[in-house]
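Feature request disguised as a bug report, sorry. It would help if multi-protein outputs had a clear separator. Right now it looks like this:
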Amino acid sequence: MAELATLARPYANAAFDVAKSDGELDRWSRMLALLAAAADNETVQVLLSAPDVEEVQKAYRLSEICGPELNDRAKRFVQVLAANKRLPLLPEIQALFEALRAEEQATLDVSVASAYPLSEGEFEKLKTALSRRFDREVTMVSEVDASLIGGGIIRAGDVVIDGSIKGRLEKLRETIQRT
């Protein structure tokens, strides 16, 4: 995974620089998401890994699949990726681009899994607390996972806060097994 990130980072940085200079971060985000989704498709993966298909043709086909959603700069970006045999990196490039975009916009995507549905008040209170904690605008989604028994798990970027009863029981089990 680290190797993929190392290979994808220069392309993500380049796409981000172009998007930022053009004032089109949101559009590039949508275009890269579409390209990444297409590159993740099994049928497209067969095309991208076909040794008998020229790289130029792969770029053309991928751009064709995405249709008018791609602007000319994005199509040229796909051609550069193809020329360097980096089309399979599109999902990783998109993920790195989104991280750069979130950093630029000082936003953070947070997912909360709780044993029971959060009330609107709890949701807003948690969102405010996380905004203060991470010093960012927080976009939060909440889901119910009854297997947690009680409490919840917060995932914010690289940070995972496990306050679930299930998690505490797991830690207790591990501690008992070690002794």
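(second protein starts here, but nothing in the output says so)
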Amino acid sequence: MRISAVITAGGSGQRFGAKKQYLELAGVPILRRTVQVFADHPQIDAIVVTAPADDLAATETLLAGLNKPCQVVAGG
């Protein structure tokens, strides 16, 4: 059996005033930090991340180099 993690990060940040998923915590964007936890988990085979449609390319770049397949799709 294959197990995939789905991480929803497609929000626009309107209420907060910024897209929280891209803010840094100790120098690492929150989204990267979150996805890395799943990428490091031995039972997770693949990861799907939703991101704002206008940030797909930037999110793919942000998540490059993970040790598991990670697909970025439009969410919101």
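Even a blank line would do. Unrelated, but nice: The longest strand covers residues 46-52.
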